[in-house]
Amino acid sequence: MNKENIIIISNISEDIERQIINLDKESFEDPNDYWEENKSFELFKQNKKIELAAINKGNNELMGYVLCIVITDEEYNKIRIGNHLESDIEIKEVIAINELKENNIYNLYFSIIAIKPKYRGQKLGNILLASVNDEIEKYKQRNIHFSKILAYVVTPGGHAITRKLGLKEVGKNIEGAIVMERVLLQ
User: Fold this and answer.
1) Residue 54: helix, strand or coil by DSSP?
2) What is the DSSP letter of 48?
3) pTM for this structure?
């Protein structure tokens, strides 16, 4: 995939959000493995998602996306010890992006990276991962910091992706998913 044919956007429109939700549904065999549609759209409406979407310049088609959410310390700790599943995250435990304050430190939950089947195997995942690091750097330049990144991993591909982001295995959750973490600030 030629990087020049891809636009990475962070200002997600309602149309792109609906495409993201549909891609999410298509990406998982088990409907319990993805964010429930209403919850996902509510997070979008409340500006509680950091989403980066890869758009094909030629036809404006969504190619893939990555989703992160900023979560409270309490929620982070529940997820990290493995007793709390992603589906258990309540909207009130997710911090709105426009409420992030300068000189504060937050926790980031890396939820998903999904790529449309026809774009898989073309290094689009690497482009999206680089975009996550770029986004973290943009927040840092605004003096908004993330101390830790956390993720649950259920597939070998997910394990490889989170390792590329610098996350390391710290345990397993109650369903057997691998808990991955990256400490950015001590």
Assistant:
1) strand
2) -
3) 0.89
